[in-house]
Design brief:
Layout (H helix, E strand, L loop, with lengths): L24 H13 L5 E7 L10 H6 L3 E7 L8 H11 L3 E4 L8 H14 L7 E7 L5 H13 L21 E4 L4 E5 L11 H9 L12 H14 L4 H7 L10 H12 L10 H13 L13 H14 L4 H22 L4
Parallel strand pairs: 1-2, 1-4, 2-3, 4-6
Antiparallel strand pairs: 5-6
Helix pairs in contact: 4-5, 6-7, 7-10, 9-10
This protein binds guanosine-5'-triphosphate (GTP).
Guanosine-5'-triphosphate (GTP) binds next to helix 5.
């Protein structure tokens, strides 16, 4: 891996202003269904993304979960550096929450989740003739994959929940899915739910970069996402993109996204008639390759003590505190979308 100090990488900060206001109807409906079903739920499995252990926290769940038992699952652990696990677990322990890191593609640590359910259920079998787990989380964190992995592990049965690389596959709270015979443990899948408003622009970028809001293409500009990714890769000496793209003709890290796109486009053949570069195709290739984990295992959140403290302070302050505030943010987002739509049609 090349050392940053030896390279001509100059950016120490990344300036970005836009925030994300995106809360489509099925998410609002999903939250309502979760609330309605909460009484019948014994354990909440809150699924987060190990690549963004802080930015994938949805403060909305704090209000829904209430006093229920909760287990935090950091999924896609195969895409994040293993050394973050201890820091995150310590942080969670401070908050009296237990965290498990999973990789659903190989069922890693999935049995630990079932064990937590079994332990609670066996404490009071009369109280829990059937044990119910609700799996919640932001879009695309791997909730449905986790449910399928739990089912494979618990009862050796196949797929029960639909999964997909695009966020938003699950659109409503599912009916109960059996994952263990004795004691009888059931799961319900829920639609991925975004924060109605992500006030911090960099948090919003991280959320978009890890594929949490890909249903709506114009939510985050791909050129900004790719530029932020490049900044982040260079900043952490995570220059495996150079090795990966090396065979594509890129020999050393660059801080210039236009330069990267120009080189990459030639190598992957993202060219239009006349040799013009297909910028969109090249950016999408770069982002997709990162999302597939081919640039190495990366954590986009800073996990030093100050960054973690700042994150929680701001998240708690900025999170919409009431249903009304959430709805207000949703209306503001709708207004913004109408303005953008009108602009794109040159109406204003
Ligand atoms: N590398 C890796 N990919 C995973 C893992 N778990 C899920 N995925 C992938 O992540 C994508 C999203 O998975 P889903 O299970 O559909 O996610 P979801 O949270 O149910 O998505 P929504 O329907 O948007 O709520 C799929 O392409 C999965 O194959 C994991 O542990 N590691």
């Amino acid at each position: 891996m090349a050392a940053r100090g030896l390279l001509n990488l100059t950016r120490n900060t990344f300036a970005h202003e836009s925030t994300i206001n995106w809360f489509p109807g099925h998410m609002a409906k999903g939250i309502k269904q979760m609330r309605d079903q909460m009484r019948a739920v014994d354990l909440i499995v809150e699924t987060r993304d190990a690549r963004i252990p802080l930015s994938s926290i949805n403060m909305q769940f704090e209000r829904i979960v209430g006093g229920k038992d909760r287990l935090v699952v950091y999924n896609k652990a195969d895409l994040a550096p293993p050394e973050i696990q201890q820091a995150v677990q310590l942080e969670m322990a401070k908050r009296k929450q237990r965290a498990i890191f999973t990789d659903t593609s190989i069922n890693k640590s999935v049995s630990q989740i079932l064990q937590v359910a079994v332990d609670i259920a066996q404490r009071d079998p009369m109280k829990y003739p059937h044990f119910s787990i609700m799996v919640v989380g932001m879009p695309n964190v791997g909730k449905s994959s986790l449910i399928n992995a739990l089912r494979r592990t618990g009862i050796n049965r196949g797929k029960a929940a639909c999964t997909g690389a695009k966020p938003g596959i699950t659109r409503a709270v599912s009916s109960r899915i059996r994952v263990l015979e004795k004691p009888a443990v059931y799961l319900v899948d829920t639609p991925g739910v975004m924060m109605p408003h992500i006030p911090d622009p960099i948090t919003a970028l991280k959320v978009a970069l890890t594929g949490k809001c890909g249903i709506k293409d114009n939510i985050a500009d791909e050129s900004v996402l790719a530029d932020y990714l490049l900044f982040r890769l260079n900043r952490f000496d995570a220059v495996e993109y150079v090795h990966y793209c090396g065979c594509l003709g890129i020999e050393q890290p660059t801080d210039d996204i236009n330069e990267l796109v120009a080189m990459l486009a030639q190598k992957i053949g993202a060219l239009r008639r006349g040799g013009e570069i297909d910028v969109d195709k090249t950016l999408q290739f770069f982002l997709r390759t990162y999302r597939q984990g081919r640039f190495g295992r990366l954590c986009l959140d800073d996990l030093d003590e100050k960054s973690v403290a700042d994150f929680f302070q701001h998240s708690l302050l900025d999170a919409p505190l009431s249903k009304n505030q959430g709805q207000k943010a949703k209306r503001a987002a709708q207004r913004q979308r109408s303005i953008e739509k009108a602009r794109s049609k040159n109406l204003i």
